[in-house]
Amino acid sequence: MGLEEDIRAIEDEIKNTKYNKATSQHIGRLKAKLAKIKDDMVMRAIKSVGGGEGFSVKKSGDGTIVLVGFPSVGKSTLLNKLTGAQSETGSYAFTTLTVVPGLMEYKGAKIQILDIPGLIAGAAMGKGRGKEVIAVVRTADLIVILGDVFNAVHVDVLMRELYDSGIRINKPKPDITIKRTGGGGIRLNRVGAVKLGLEEVRAILGENKIMNADVLIRGSNVTQDDLVDAMQGNRIYIPAFIAINKVDLISDAQRKEVEEHMREKYGVDPIMISAHKGYHIEELQDAIYEHLGFVRIYMKPYGEEADMEEPMIMRKGSTIEDICHRLHRDFVDQFRYAKIWGTSVKHDAAKVGLKHVVEDNDIVTVVTKL
Ligand SMILES: Nc1nc2c(ncn2[C@@H]2O[C@H](COP(=O)(O)OP(=O)(O)OP(=O)(O)O)[C@@H](O)[C@H]2O)c(=O)[nH]1
Ligand SMILES: [K+]
Ligand SMILES: [Mg+2]
């Protein structure tokens, strides 16, 4: 209990100290200290569970999503609806005790969905098999945060537990490198209008006994928290969105109220669904597909018709080189050029190289040396 009290005390002090030039080093030190205590409790434990019985699931398909929510919000009901799996459901908490996978096929993509036990307050510290559950969440490509219409406030608790578990949601990884050196103190290189100053950086790293290092920070909105994250080094950056289940149980007016509340709080419209009745399930599938960032590529063998039946599913940002890797291990070496019909090129049948980034619905011919 001692450590948890320490944590609350430091959190209170951070909250009650106004950030300015005079206090910035002190706050930085507190944040670094807090992260260290939390990590000692959370991360070591997560590493030590290493799967656990019923918790190691092999990834499969073109992407893996995980349904995170309090007990009985309807995670298993939703998994079954989306994938035809048969995860046990029940009107009591902790019906699901292990990880149950299912496979959803949507727009040609095969998406693995993981149903997990309910997450509760204190999960990051290990409550309710929290460590095992979080170890699974950390491996996902996308998190669907599921609430229900009666407990939308729980979403706050979930966000906090995920944060305490080193999971950063809907945020690109800050561009920070910390390279330890043998001497010379802390040297700070800043690219762009970085606001963090040398004294703050020194205070934060010093809390972790890093006295000598070359630090490179790029980007104007890098914060103390980002630097602490980079120092701790075990953070994971995952996209996520919110869905609210069981809308069949409330009136239209009540539904609007919940929607409004979520919009104000998180700045986005939650997807209002009923896993039971199948309401807005297609919208949810679309959101999953969009957030995973898939593009469909149609291959056209040289001199033949394109295969418009079965697209190749790639992640957004993929290049011709990525496609070559998928096709055959020799294709990159043998590559001459590719031809593209679609939105990624100015005119149809344009020739491109390995580094060209493809877009959804592109038709691609790869031409190799003989
Ligand atoms: N009315 C209504 N009931 C639902 C809906 N989705 C799930 N339920 C019910 O809510 C209860 C809990 O559903 P589960 O799917 O077991 O919930 P869970 O989140 O998997 O629960 P745990 O595994 O215990 O964490 C069951 O009685 C379901 O029938 C829905 O959209 N509408
Ligand atoms: K349940
Ligand atoms: Mg369940």
From TrEMBL:
Spell out the SUPFAM superfamilies in the cross-references.
P-loop containing nucleoside triphosphate hydrolases, TGS-like
> One MF term in GO for this entry?
GTP binding
Q: Could you tell me the keywords of this UniProt record?
A: GTP-binding, Nucleotide-binding
Membrane-crossing segments per the record:
none
Q: Does the keyword GTP-binding apply?
A: yes
The superkingdom of the source organism is Archaea
All copies of the TGS domain together span: 293-368
The residue ranges of the OBG-type G domain are 63-293
Q: What is this protein called?
A: Small GTP-binding protein
Q: Which organism is it from?
A: Methanocorpusculum labreanum (strain ATCC 43576 / DSM 4855 / Z)
